[in-house]
Amino acid sequence: MSVLQPGEGDLPGDHYLPAGPDTVLWGRLPCAADAPVLTIASGMTVTIDTVSHEGILEDQGKDPRAYFGRHGVAPEAVLDDAVAIAASLSRDPAHDGPHVVTGPIHVEGAQPGDLLKITVERLVPRVPYGVISNRHGKGALVGVLPRGPHPVSVFTPVEERPGGLVGTMPLTDDGRRIVEFPLAPFLGTMGVAVAGDERPHSVPPGDHGGNLDVKLLTEGAALYLPVQVPGALAYVGDPHFAQGDGEVALTALEASLRATLRFEVVARTEALAEFGELTGPLARTDEFLVPMGLDSDLDEAMRKCVRAALDVITARWGMDEHLAYAYLSAATDFDISQVVDIVCGIHARIRESDFGRVPQRAGVSQAVASPGSAPSTTGRVDSATSPSGSA
């Protein structure tokens, strides 16, 4: 596996947006007061470098070359943009989140009431290693793990196998790496800016998206977000190599990715025809519609997800509500996205093929296309414009 330093390797998008002190926020998410670092037309693709927070945090020394060097990583295999961000930016660990997000991106024509559709066309690992962390008593077993006051960060090399890339772990700290699990990269954070002049904390997700940690958002999937401010001001970050639903130890296998994403404005009239009145995030894969429920109480998150699923089914296919409720109980899985981000997440997997015999209404599209199927609308632009301030 090669290391993808800034600007190196394949950059297939119409635009390229690097990660650096002038194009990222650390610990906070964009709001309406932030200036865009890139402006694009609806339908364009952007190849975006994302940087994992693992290896740059204060409790890891805020020096990624030193941190990863202790695990045998050569200095040239540590990302230069991670080094620059750690050296140039700061955050308040008591009040800010850990995540680095690249953006915001202004999408021309996006207005409140519209949806922003973000299609994941390509995700490429930038390094052959990642980190899984359980720190500061956080995770599903608060007060039980980690044992002791110090954070636990598990360095996890990635290796190639005939079936693809795998993460490797030992059975004991000093043992051979004989436990392997497949990689399924996705971006834990995808969002749009909130109204007002206060940047949200990067950890809890919300109607704006943010730190959703929905592992279904792999290549080919799309995320629909209600636009909150003109231009949407989209951003992405918190890259994952792999995650189990629940993300119980606090983090998944966190590691930097190069993402190529398509940003499209879905006008309000079309959005209403497609999904009804969306007030929160909705994902779509080649098989499922994925409404979400978000709340600090897991039971309430489940109720919100069921309500969102009912609303989508009744709006999209015209099914009576009591019949949709019965259908969900018989045919739809409700999965725990994560229980560690202050606000818990539940997502439903509604099979679109179950409604394949329902006559298609005008304005309602079929399942999301495969990666790379949409045509390019312009040549790639290599320079970001209007840099914003840093968090």
UniProtKB/TrEMBL annotation:
Residues 359-391 are annotated as: Disordered. Residues 373-391 have a biased composition (Polar residues). It comes from the Bacteria. Pfam families: FmdA_AmdA. PANTHER family: FORMAMIDASE C869.04-RELATED. This is Acetamidase/formamidase. It comes from Microbacterium paludicola.
